[in-house]
Amino acid sequence: MIKTAITEMFGIRYPVICGAMMWLCTPRLCAAISNAGGMGNLTAGNYESEEDFRNAIREVRKLTDKPFMVGITILPSVRITSEHHMVYAKVCAEEQVAGIEVSGTPLDKALGMQTMEMLKKAGVKLFHKLGSVRHAVHAEKAGYDGVYAAGFEEGGHPLGDDVTTMVLTPRIAESVKIPVVTVGGVSDGRSLAAALTLGAQGVMMASRFISTEECDVHENIKQELIRRQENETTLICKSIGLQGRALKNKIVAEVLAAEERGDGLDVLIPLIAGQRVKGAWEKGNVDDAPLMVGQSIGHIHDILSCKALLERMHDEAIVHLRKASALIE
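Above: the chain's sequence. Below: its structure in token form.
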């Protein structure tokens, strides 16, 4: 077995964590990943009321007795406010979830150090997803338990510094003492092995978990990710300071054209709205919304259960680590 600071911290079998995915990281997928030996994710932004969010956490616990992450994204949003973020943090502390993945603005800056202290007192491990050494150094000083080093290959919202995973992981690993988790371009055992040799203690992946049996997304989407290649994503929303990586499709072409014209939020928001994305995931209309996936889709070739996927990743990683070791005379 592969033993790292992440497997030890959470008592999990594999050093593989699911990243937050709006609308997709539901109790079913979250529990399936945790039951399979990884670390599932329940994305807080799926829930608009305290009651619904708390019930979702409890639903996960009915499905698994294993630890899981909660994803809290602190970025500009029409639907999710700072009040929502505070509710999410409060409920996570009260329910004593295993860990939180914070994306966007650091938790200490968005909600204050008192919120950090409340969560740490409750035993919640805090990880900040970031894309630069300077932000990692800040996270360590603020008291985070670890960081996600997110290369700009990732789906979602990579930092505008545009640094690749290959460069970012070792740079952050040599700059902080807290555990580093690699994000971006991760989908299989080879990428897990590579991350470990770069200095990471684990990996976080999201796009690969979409094409699993337990992900509640339309079959058209799962098959589309198998068909698409690593060059078929692009960066959007740079003009509004919300850079995101999405699958190339009809609506993404419209977004890029609108940005080229200099259109503002009144034109862009209807094209990128969360409810539009939710509808595309559910109905399988690939061209109807920006689908935030990473370049790792080039490595998605099949649909597996979460258990089979994680077992294969682990076994492949060991094979590749041994091959690399055999090169040494």
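The two ends are 24 Å apart (CA to CA).
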